Automatic annotation (TrEMBL), chain A:
Natural source organism: Azospira oryzae (strain ATCC BAA-33 / DSM 13638 / PS) (Dechlorosoma suillum)
Listed PROSITE patterns: 2FE2S_FER_2, 4FE4S_HC3, COMPLEX1_75K_2
Cofactor(s) the protein needs: [2Fe-2S] cluster; [4Fe-4S] cluster
One of the GO BP terms on file: ATP synthesis coupled electron transport
Protein known as: NADH:ubiquinone oxidoreductase chain G-like protein
TrEMBL record, chain B:
Pfam name, any one: NADH_4Fe-4S
Name of the protein in question: NAD(P)-dependent nickel-iron dehydrogenase flavin-containing subunit
Entry keyword Lipid metabolism: no
Lineage summary: Bacteria, Pseudomonadati, Pseudomonadota, Betaproteobacteria, Rhodocyclales
PANTHER family documented for this protein: NADH-QUINONE OXIDOREDUCTASE SUBUNIT F (PTHR43578)
Family to which the UniProt record says this protein belongs: Belongs to the complex I 51 kDa subunit family.
Organism: Azospira oryzae
Keywords on record: 4Fe-4S, Iron, Iron-sulfur, Metal-binding
Domain NADH-ubiquinone oxidoreductase 51kDa subunit iron-sulphur binding: from-to ranges: 478-523
InterPro entries in the cross-refs: NADH-UbQ_OxRdtase_51kDa_CS, Nuo51_FMN-bd, Nuo51_FMN-bd_sf, NuoE_N, Nuop51_4Fe4S-bd, Nuop51_4Fe4S-bd_sf, Thioredoxin-like_sf
PROSITE patterns with a match to the protein in the record: COMPLEX1_51K_1 (PS00644), COMPLEX1_51K_2 (PS00645)
Cofactor(s) needed by this chain: FMN
Length: 237, 602
C-alpha cells in the first residue's frame, strides 16, 4: 500500500503511476479535465491551454505536467472554468465559427466544451480572418475557418500515417495550416479519407465529402450528454 | 549580400552541399539561399525539402515562421526601419514616411518596378545610435533626413550596397562606463589555463562559489545549471551561447561580440570544460548578421591557437568546437527551448518543460544555454577567483551588470556597474534630466516612475537583462506601451491560445484607445486579458506581454484616461471609420462625408 502515490484533485484523492501527467491520472480515475489538443494516442502538445489547473497556487497545463505525490490540484472551480471559458472565447473569435451551418455541429469538441462551460457569448471582438477553403480533394474538404491549431492532424499524419500531409506556417495570429504540395492543394498530396489524420480533427476543418449532416439532431455525439460525460465514457470503452 | 541573378539550381547545390544536406541546417540553408536569390521561390522550397528528405510542408512552415525569410519577392532593396520605442522618440516613422514618399512606395509593399520595399521591424539593437534601419540585412545607424534622402538616391540609381558610403554602416560600441569585465584584457587561453590548473570539478566549484547568475533574464544560478548538465545522463553534451538579444532596448551583447569575442568564446570553452561538452553553438540574431565574418575569424584564430578543436591546450580528450547559427527575425528564439528548436532547423516554438534543456536539449542532449554576458563573466571568475568576483555587487547579485542605455539622455551607450547601483545614479551618469519613467528590462521588464528611482539594479530589487530605456516628461507613456504591445503581438510564436489571440486582442484594444474610441470597459478587458496571459501562457513571452500596459495603467493612468470617451462602453465597430474606404474611393473628406457631422445636422 505504501507505494501507491496520490494527489488531490479538487480535494479528492487520485492514485497515479510515475510518469503520468495530472490529466492522464485524473482521467484514469474517472475525473474529467477539459482538453482540446490532448489526445490519448499522442504525447502531450500543450497548446490549447484548456486543461490549465492550479497546483499550489500556480497555473500549469495538466496534460503536460507530471503528477507528483501530495500535489493539491484545483480544476473544477469557478476560477479555472472562468479562465477556460475565456480561452474558448479566444478560439471562437480568432476563427470563423458559424455553428448553425457547420457540418460538425453536435459532434464538435470546441462547441461541446463551450456548452459545457456555459460560454454564452464570444465576449471579445471577432477577427473575421480570411481563410480560404480547400475543396480540391475528391473525398475530403478542408475548411480552415474553424482550425484551432491543435496539430492533431499534423501529428496523426506524421506519426501514424507516415505521410506528413499537414504543417503549420507563419506565426502569431497569422499562423495557419499548409498541406504538403507546391500547389498548396490537398488534391496534390497522397492524402486519403481513410488516413488517421482525416478522422481526428476535433472541430470542423477536415470533413468527409457527401456525408454532411448525416446524423440527425438528437443523435449526435454531444446532443444527449455533455462532453464531460461523453469523454469519460470513452475511457471506459 | 546583393541579390545576384544566379541560376537557382546552382545556388541551391552550393548551399546544400556546404551544409551537408543536414536537416538541422534548414534555417541556415533557407537564409543562405535567400541571401543569394533575394527571396525563397516555391520551387526552391520543394528542392530543399527533397534534398534534406523533409516533407515540403515542414520546410514551408519553417520558412514562414521567421520574419526575415520571404517566400515572395521583396524588392532588390529591402529596407526595414527599427521600430523600438526609442527609435520612435528619434522620429523613425517620420523618416520612414519620407522614404516611402520619395521612392513612391507604400509601407509594407514592394514598389511597382520591384526595386524596393520599405517596412518596420522589431528593435535592431542600435538604440544608442538610432534611428536605425536594415537594408538587405545590413544596419545603417544615425539616420537623419539628409541621410534618408541620400539613401533614396542610391536606391533609385540602383547602386550596389558595396558602393554605398561605408560611414553609413558604422556601428559604435559607445562604451561609457567600464568596470571589472570591460576592463579585463584577456590573453586568449589565459582563463582556460587557470581553470585547467584546477581541474573540471574544482573549476565548477569555483563557478558555484562565485554565485554567478544568468544575465539573460531569468537569473538562474550558472554553477547549478552547469552541474545539472554535467550530471545528466547522456554521452554528448552541448553548450549554447544565446546571442539572440531580442529584448527591445538591449544591445550589450552586440558590444561584447564586437569587441570582446574572445571573452565570450573562452567562456563557452570554460563551460565545456566544466560540463564535458564537446559541441558548442553561438545563436546569433539575424539582425547581427554583419558580425558573422568577424566572429568566424575569431573562432578560426582560436582554433589555430589550439583553444578550440581536438585536444585543447594540449590536453588529450578535451575536444570542443563552436558553430555559429544565425537567426532570422524571431524574438521568441531567445527563449532557450525555442532557440534549441531553431538550432535544430525547426520553427521557433518553445517546448514543454520539464524536461529542461540541461537534461534534454539540442537533439535530446544535455544542453547548457547561457547568455553572452554570463559566459564572458566566467572568464573573470577563472582569472581572479570566485571570492574576488563575489566581493562585487550585492549578496544575492554578485559581480557587475552591463546596461544598454538609450532614450532621453545625453550619453546613450553601454554602462557597466556593480549590482546594487541605484536608478538615480545611472540617470545622473548618463545625463538624463526631467525623467518621467525608465523602462528597465525591455518590453517584458518593468516601468519605473520617478518615486522609484531610489531602487537598485539587482535580482532582488529591479532585475534586468540589460535594457534601460529613458523617457522624459514630454513623452506619452501610453504610446510607449502601445509600441511594446505591438511588438509582442508581432513576435508571438502563436503556439498557445492565450498569447496567440491575447496579444492581438490587446493590440486592438490599445489601437482603439489611441484613436479615442476607448471606454472604461476596455480597461477592464485589458486587465482580464493580462490575467489570462499570466495564467495560461506557455512561455515567458506571453507571460510578460501585458506588463507594459498594466504597469503604465497603474502608474500613469491619466495617459489612458485622457483618451477615454466618457461613456462606460464604446463599441469596437466604428461606423464613421468604416465609411473611410467609401470616402477614399469617392475622393471626399468634407464634413458631410463624416457621420458625426451628419448627426450634428439633425
Ligand atoms: C521570450 C523570451 C526571450 C528571451 N530572449 C533572450 C535573449 O535574447 N538572450 C538571452 O540570453 N536570454 C533570453 N531569454 C532567456 C533565456 O530563455 C534563458 O533563460 C537564458 O538564455 C539563460 O541564460 P542565462 O542563465 O545565462 O541568463 C529569453 C526568454 C524569453 C522567455
Ligand atoms: S485542422 Fe483540425 S486537427 Fe488539424 S490543427 Fe486544425 S483543428 Fe487541429
Ligand atoms: S506564450 Fe506566446 S510566444 Fe510563448 S509559446 Fe505561447 S504563443 Fe508562443
Ligand atoms: S489539453 Fe493541455 S494544453 Fe491543450
Amino acid at each position: 500500500m505504501s507505494d501507491t502515490k496520490k494527489f488531490l484533485l479538487d480535494g479528492k484523492p487520485v492514485v497515479f503511476q510515475d510518469g503520468q501527467t495530472i490529466l492522464e491520472a485524473a482521467r484514469q480515475a474517472g475525473h474529467y479535465i477539459p482538453h482540446l489538443c490532448w489526445h490519448p494516442d499522442f504525447p502531450a502538445h500543450g497548446s490549447c491551454k484548456l486543461c490549465i489547473v492550479k497546483v499550489g497556487g500556480r497555473h500549469v497545463s495538466s496534460c503536460a505536467m507530471p503528477a507528483k505525490e501530495g500535489m493539491e490540484v484545483e480544476s473544477n472551480t469557478p476560477e479555472m472554468n472562468g479562465e477556460r471559458r475565456a480561452l474558448l472565447q479566444m478560439l471562437f473569435v480568432e476563427g470563423n465559427h458559424f455553428c448553425p451551418s457547420c457540418e460538425k455541429s453536435g459532434n464538435c469538441q470546441l462547441q461541446a466544451l463551450a456548452y459545457d462551460l456555459e460560454m454564452l457569448s464570444a465576449h471579445f471582438n471577432h477577427f473575421y480572418p480570411n481563410r480560404p477553403v480547400d475543396a480540391s480533394h475528391p473525398d475530403v474538404l478542408l475548411d480552415f475557418n474553424r482550425c484551432i491549431f491543435c496539430e492533431l492532424c499534423v501529428r496523426a499524419s506524421r506519426d501514424i500515417d507516415g505521410k506528413n500531409i499537414f504543417a503549420l506556417t507563419d506565426r502569431g495570429i497569422h499562423k495557419h495550416l499548409v498541406v504538403n504540395a507546391e500547389s498548396g492543394r490537398l488534391a496534390d498530396t497522397d492524402f486519403a479519407a481513410s488516413d488517421r489524420a482525416a478522422n481526428i480533427c476535433p472541430v470542423g476543418v477536415i470533413l468527409h465529402k457527401r456525408q454532411g449532416f448525416a446524423r440527425p439532431i438528437g443523435e449526435r455525439d454531444y446532443d444527449a450528454k455533455p462532453i464531460s460525460v461523453v469523454a469519460m465514457e470513452e475511457v471506459e470503452k | 549580400m546583393e541579390p545576384i541573378a544566379n541560376s537557382l539550381d546552382a545556388v541551391l547545390e552550393a548551399v546544400l552541399s556546404k551544409r551537408r544536406r543536414d536537416p538541422t541546417q534548414l534555417l541556415q540553408i533557407l537564409r543562405e539561399v535567400q541571401e543569394q536569390v533575394g527571396y525563397i521561390p516555391p520551387p526552391a522550397l520543394t528542392a530543399i525539402a527533397a534534398a534534406l528528405k523533409l516533407p515540403r510542408a515542414r520546410v514551408e512552415g519553417v520558412a514562414g515562421f521567421y520574419s526575415f525569410l520571404h517566400l515572395q519577392p521583396v524588392g532588390k532593396y529591402r529596407v526595414l526601419f527599427s521600430d523600438n520605442a526609442t527609435d520612435r522618440l528619434l522620429g523613425n516613422l517620420d523618416l520612414l514616411g519620407t522614404m516611402c514618399q520619395k521612392l513612391w512606395v507604400e509601407q509594407g509593399k514592394v514598389s511597382e518596378d520591384g526595386l524596393v520595399s520599405v517596412d518596420v521591424t522589431s528593435c535592431t539593437g542600435m538604440c544608442d545610435q538610432g534611428p536605425a534601419l536594415l537594408v538587405n540585412g545590413r544596419p545603417i545607424t544615425r539616420l537623419t533626413h539628409q541621410r534618408v534622402n541620400e539613401i533614396c538616391e542610391l536606391i533609385r540609381s540602383r547602386r550596389p550596397l558595396s558602393l554605398w558610403p561605408q560611414e553609413y554602416f558604422r556601428v559604435e560600441d559607445n562604451i561609457r562606463r567600464k568596470d571589472d569585465l570591460l576592463n579585463t584584457v584577456l590573453e586568449p587561453g589565459a582563463a582556460l589555463a587557470a581553470a585547467m590548473a584546477l581541474g573540471p570539478e574544482a573549476w565548477l566549484g569555483e563557478v558555484q562559489k562565485s554565485s554567478l547568475r544568468g544575465r539573460g533574464g531569468a537569473g538562474f544560478t550558472t554553477g547549478v545549471k552547469w552541474e545539472a548538465c554535467r550530471n545528466a545522463p547522456g554521452e554528448e553534451r552541448v553548450i549554447v551561447c544565446n546571442a539572440d538579444e531580442g529584448e527591445p532596448g538591449t544591445f550589450k551583447d552586440r558590444v561584447l561580440l564586437t569587441s570582446y569575442p574572445d571573452h565570450v568564446f573562452e567562456g563557452m570553452t570554460l563551460a565545456a570544460y566544466a560540463t564535458g561538452a564537446r559541441q558548442g553553438f553561438l545563436y546569433l540574431r539575424g539582425e547581427y548578421r554583419y558580425l558573422l565574418e568577424p566572429l568566424e575569424a575569431a573562432l578560426q584564430r582560436r582554433r589555430e591557437a589550439g583553444l578550440l578543436g581536438q585536444g585543447i591546450r594540449g590536453q588529450a580528450g578535451f575536444d570542443f568546437d563552436i558553430e555559429i547559427h544565425l537567426g532570422a527575425g524571431a524574438y521568441v528564439c531567445g527563449e532557450e527551448t525555442a532557440l534549441i528548436e531553431s538550432l535544430e532547423g525547426k520553427r521557433g516554438t518553445p517546448r514543454i518543460r520539464p524536461p529542461f534543456p540541461v537534461i534534454k536539449g539540442y537533439l535530446g542532449r544535455p544542453t547548457v544555454v547561457n547568455n553572452v554576458e554570463t559566459l564572458a563573466k566566467t572568464v573573470l571568475i577563472a582569472l581572479e577567483g570566485a571570492e574576488r568576483f563575489a566581493a562585487v555587487g550585492t549578496a544575492q547579485s554578485t559581480g557587475t551588470k552591463l546596461l544598454s542605455i538609450s532614450g532621453d539622455c545625453a550619453f546613450p551607450g553601454i554602462y557597466e556597474y556593480p549590482f546594487g547601483v541605484s536608478i538615480e545614479q545611472i540617470l545622473e551618469d548618463c545625463g538624463a534630466t526631467d525623467v518621467q519613467a525608465v523602462q528597465v528590462g525591455g518590453a517584458s521588464g518593468t516601468c519605473l516612475a520617478s518615486y522609484e528611482f531610489h531602487r537598485g539594479i539587482a535580482y532582488e530589487d529591479v532585475p534586468t537583462a540589460g535594457s534601460f530605456m529613458i523617457f522624459d516628461t514630454s513623452r506619452d507613456l501610453f504610446e510607449v506601451a502601445r509600441n511594446f504591445v505591438h511588438f509582442f503581438a508581432h513576435e508571438s510564436c502563436g503556439f498557445c491560445t492565450p498569447c496567440r489571440v491575447g496579444t492581438s486582442l490587446l493590440q486592438n484594444f490599445m489601437d482603439k484607445l489611441a484613436t479615442g474610441h476607448g471606454a472604461k470597459y476596455d480597461l477592464a478587458d485589458i486587465e482580464w486579458i493580462n490575467r489570462l496571459l499570466k495564467a495560461a501562457s506557455h512561455c515567458g513571452l506571453g507571460l510578460a506581454a501585458a506588463n507594459p500596459v498594466v504597469e503604465t495603467l497603474i502608474k500613469f493612468r491619466p495617459a489612458y484616461e485622457r483618451r477615454l470617451q466618457s461613456l462606460d462602453f464604446a463599441p469596437a465597430f466604428d461606423l464613421d471609420q468604416s465609411l473611410a474606404e467609401a470616402r477614399r474611393m469617392t475622393g471626399r473628406d468634407d464634413a458631410d462625408a463624416h457621420l458625426s457631422s451628419v448627426e450634428a445636422h439633425r
